[in-house]
Design a protein that fits this description.
The chain has about 300 residues and is of the alpha+beta class. It is built from 11 helices and 5 strands; from the N terminus they run ααααααββββαβαααα.
Length: about 300
């Protein structure tokens, strides 16, 4: 009898598929269910952001088709000039309702409010999004002062293997005296810059190209500098990418990338939790397909 009692106690202590192990580890159960909820929320966010990015792309494609007819047969320079011409002489846009004091990264705003097209940052946003829709590689370029603060924003577009400079707020492709399209390296020469910007009303003398950047991630408090160091080691030249610039210029794309990253993180967390629960705590969390099967059986039994 004692032996049977010992065996019964030992059997009761063994992990099982039931609820006993979960009751012995309430903290793990809470983390497990929280992880599942976060995974579901991140999947929903990803689905929403994918739909948002798709609608934004379709909107921009329609805009681009209206501005640049037969874009497939045009040279890159002609596409750029068509976009700048639309920004300068396009149809009337809404004048009220835009708060230009707030940085806007939604092309549905920057393309439709006249006030945004008068500000270098949002004008560059509108240009880069239209250039991307037209099949061009474009990225933003920040002109910095001695304190590493942004004093002006322009765009760079890849044409014939060179990143040439476009100033969207002044609607100008910067050229040399011989009509040569200029790069930021060439514009570091004060004489070249002066000739390229001659005749531009309100162009300030301190809009120079001696200090530039594509992304100022180092200015993010606390994590900025370590994050830049990690990215420089893992992905050299990452900040020069047109895709990175587009991430910063389109909210829908940035949200989609972030949401997909969250889904991957939450899925990985779920795998790690399952492994820890099974190997360390001797738990057997019910798999989703088993939960779904039981839910279906319960529904059919109730319906019957």
């Amino acid at each position: 009898m004692n032996e049977a009692r010992v065996k019964g106690v030992a059997a009761a202590d063994l992990p099982s598929e039931g609820n006993q192990p979960e009751r012995r580890h309430p903290a793990f159960r809470a983390v497990w269910y929280a992880g599942n909820v976060l995974l579901i929320l991140s999947v929903l966010l990803a689905a929403y952001s994918i739909a948002w990015e798709y609608s934004t792309r379709e909107y921009l494609r329609g805009f681009s088709d209206a501005i640049i007819p037969e874009a497939g047969s045009l040279a890159a320079q002609d596409k750029i000039e068509a976009i700048l011409n639309w920004m300068a002489h396009g149809p009337a846009r809404r004048a009220a309702g835009a708060d230009v004091s707030v940085s806007d990264r939604d092309p549905m705003d920057t393309l439709n409010y006249a006030a945004f097209l008068q500000v270098c940052g949002s004008a560059t946003n509108a240009f880069i999004n239209l250039a991307d829709a037209a099949g061009l590689q474009a990225r933003r370029l920040l002109l910095l002062d001695s304190q590493q603060m942004t004093k002006h924003v322009v765009a760079e577009v890849r044409v014939d293997g060179r990143w040439i400079v476009v100033d969207p707020v002044f609607r100008r492709l910067l050229r040399g005296t011989n009509g040569h399209l200029l790069t930021r390296e060439e514009l570091t020469d004060p004489a070249v810059l002066s000739a390229a910007t001659q005749g531009l009303r309100d162009y300030l003398p301190d809009y120079t190209y001696d200090r530039t950047a594509h992304v100022r991630i180092a200015r993010i408090p606390v994590v900025g500098r370590p994050l830049r160091t990690v990215l420089d080691r893992l992905v050299p030249g990452w900040e020069d990418s047109a895709f990175v610039s587009l991430l910063l210029e389109r909210e829908s794309l940035a949200t989609m990338v972030l949401a997909i990253f969250l889904v991957m993180c939450m899925a990985l967390l779920r795998v790690v939790l399952r492994w820890y629960g099974e190997k360390r705590l001797w738990l057997r969390p019910m798999r989703f397909r088993e939960q779904f099967r039981r839910a279906c059986y319960s529904f059919l039994d109730t319906a019957g």
